[in-house]
Amino acid sequence: MKTLRCLGLTALTLIVLLTGCGKKGPVRPLELPLPAAPTNVSLQQRGESLRLSWEAPTANQNGTPLTDLQGFRLFRLPFVPGQECPECRDLSVLLTEIDLDYPQGIMREGNRLTYVDDFVQAETGYRYRIVPFTEAGREGAPTTLSGIVYPVPPAPGGLTAEGLDRLVRLQWEAPVLDSSQGQVVGYRLYRHADPAQVAASPLNRQPLTEPRFEDFGRDNGTPLTYAVSLIVRQQATEVESALSEKVTVTPESGF
User: What Cα–Cα distance (Å) separates residue 169 from each residue in 79, 177, 187, 247?
Assistant: First the structure.
């Protein structure tokens, strides 16, 4: 009887051990840290181009610091607005690959990158997918967004700039629009010490409502280049014109 009880306990112990092993399963390796998705993404039309901007991630998806970000792969899918569903199936193709060590075709200000897609057509929609990748080529989480290309409003003309003591006084002509070109929202003003970089980002966060601006606090003796664009509203979308002609001016003391 004692022997049977011992055998029973031994068998029971064996079953428990086997069952416990079955629940735990094999030890799984830790997943590789991969980049989180780009943030603060925006898509804006300027003239006949679409400007795609985003901030590079600084952390991996598991919260650890991102130390091996190599670049971004940008995918694009054209679609017919109102007739096709770009979200239903991902049929996008690679538009470009951006290597942060050798950045070409992009503008960068700190952690923010801007890509200009010049190969778009009016009355066509475009869906973009931005995918970060590591030095080993592994892709992180993507970010997607879509936009429609509308007819381009005219750019402001007659931009003039007067350099005064730590001040630049600017003025331009308001374009005349017909009803098909949208409703005027205002103007964006651009400024940069490097004429080649003047289109990188606007000086004003909110559109200017008058065709004039006084830029205070500029350094005397430093040339500055300016340009301005018109913002109109097409349905629920703000559309930006091409930039006006650039002007370069130098603030001077004694005025």
Answer: 44, 26, 16, 12
